[in-house]
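User: Second chain of the day. Same drill as before.
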Amino acid sequence: MHITRCTRTSMFLSTATAFLLLAATLCLLPGARAQQTQIVLDGHSTGRIFDGLGAASAGASSRLLIDYPEPERSQILDYLFKPGYGASLQRLKVEIGGDVNSTDGSEPSAERTPTDHDATRGYEWWLMAEAHKRNPHIILEVLPWGAPGWVGTRNGNKATLYTTRMAAYVADFIRMAKQQYGLDIAYTGLWNEKVYDLDYLRALHHQLTVDHLATKIVCCDEYAHQPGGEWAIADVMLKDPEIMNDVAALGGHYPRMKGHYTTTGAARSTGKPLWSSEDQPNDGSGPFVSRNWERGGRILAHLYNANYLEGTLTATEIWSPITSYYDILAAPNSGLMYANTPWSGHYDVQGAIWATAHTTQFAQPGWQYLDKSSGNLPGKGTYVALRSSDRKSWSVVLETIGAAAPQTVTFRITGGLVATQVHIWETNGARVFDHVANVTPKHGSFTYTFDADALYSLTTTTGQGKGTAVPPPAAPFPLPYADSFEQTPLHHTPKYLADQDGAFEVRPCEGRAGRCLEQVITALPIPWGPLPDPFTLAGDEAWTDYTVAADVRFLSHSTATVMGRIDSANVFQDHHALLPAGYVLSLAPGGAWQLLSTQFKKPTATLASGTVSLVTKQWHHLALRFHGTQIEAELDGKPLASVQDATHTHGMFALGSEWNLVQFDNLRVTP
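Assistant: Same format as last time:
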């Protein structure tokens, strides 16, 4: 039989010896059913230490999860964090909130003034605690996107977090996590996707040291397109022993650019762990794709292996763990799973969960990659081998994504690795994380044929499992909808309302009994991205004809707004936009009002305006009604305007203000 030797590419095939150890690969004649490959699993092989797979809850991406009812909320958390059940995430990074838009909303700050310390705000504390409850070994990280204005400095339109106050702010967050939740934060970063500042890096390291915090610094969470590239800090570290000591790990965002990895020789030379500290399954159509197996799952299966094989990256963190934000916000569908209808209890365990499980349920942080036993398959696909420190356990994660035919592989076990029974798990278009075979090696070898376009885990370990919880069906946002805010705890956010800037919290009503919703942020925060005026959003994108109404009370010079038919709240489409895209009825304390139609990257259209006489220190009732192309505005039950406009035909509702105090009560949306 005529045979030809295959050519293969791998970061590990730099020597003839490595090539022979990896595989004696034969390509069969066309028409053969499976290609034959041999892989040597060598326990003496060297390699970097595996630091785990995780996700970053940031940018308000987890906002709606905490509003889910039980038992569905616990089921979702189990699919994310419970070992041997679902994604079994080994790392969790959360945002240090700053009351400022950080992608899909604003996350609350725990320190709005130097003397304010409130670790009950928001949901990241809760999420970390729930993750830790399920996996006490989970690695926790924190990173700021923005911060309250008092923390940073401003010079005109330029603002920065890089101050000693910010270093203390981060240390306080870490200390509160320990004191109030018993959580140990392993790592903190500098400032998400902003160019690093060496003086601040030193100040942060000094603050952590003097506060006797064991938290280490990962640097610098930048993009490849930023000045000097995302690994630029490595060149500084190689020249500056102090910075080398201050940085425990290097993290870059989206390190695979146009099919090539950005990892530099300098980064590898530091000897520090290299991480993809924010990543996505990306097929070239954009960073955020469907998380079913055919798209997100398949891509992620290859990405996890390639991040090590090509990028030398020993940890990968996906933004985000779960899509728990409204679809009309920026970067929809970023999560490993999908859960943004808490009123229904519905969630979707997507293919990305099982693509992740094929690594996390078979290898633990602290295991070692076996470089000589990792590489590329001849018929398309990759494999990485890892072992425990005592060599008693080992696993291989193998994917054949894009392969056209099955591939038969013979594994030879050497170097002190145990040659006990091997359990094989598979995911593909027809299977979801199935235990498909047990193989007993003979004379230290075994052979298996792998399907094309599939993901496998081969392991000597046990304890893997596939969650069985089934969600209820999806349901639209309830209509009619009403909230008097009486059932929301003071200083907390009502269910389903997603703050997009500022902070809308329940406070005692001004001038009437009971509880009201108040926008409480009065000073511009230090932003990460766009800085729209504060608004809080809810509802259903498909709504067409409805009335949104609320009582308003002025506590400052700020206007109050009621908005409807919001068809996009992705403020990243227009960094100068102060409002989402929809219809806006605004009322100022002096009586001036406007009915606006807003669109991104287009001038705002004033549909009607005027001035009315009103008593500022009284409650007033604003209503905005839609029926076909007719838009009506009312104040205290009396008409302000009735206009015809077809710019926005459907969308959600919102309440808003400027950067000052306004209260709302008796929010109602009726068909």
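The two ends are 75 Å apart (CA to CA).

User: Great, on to the next one.
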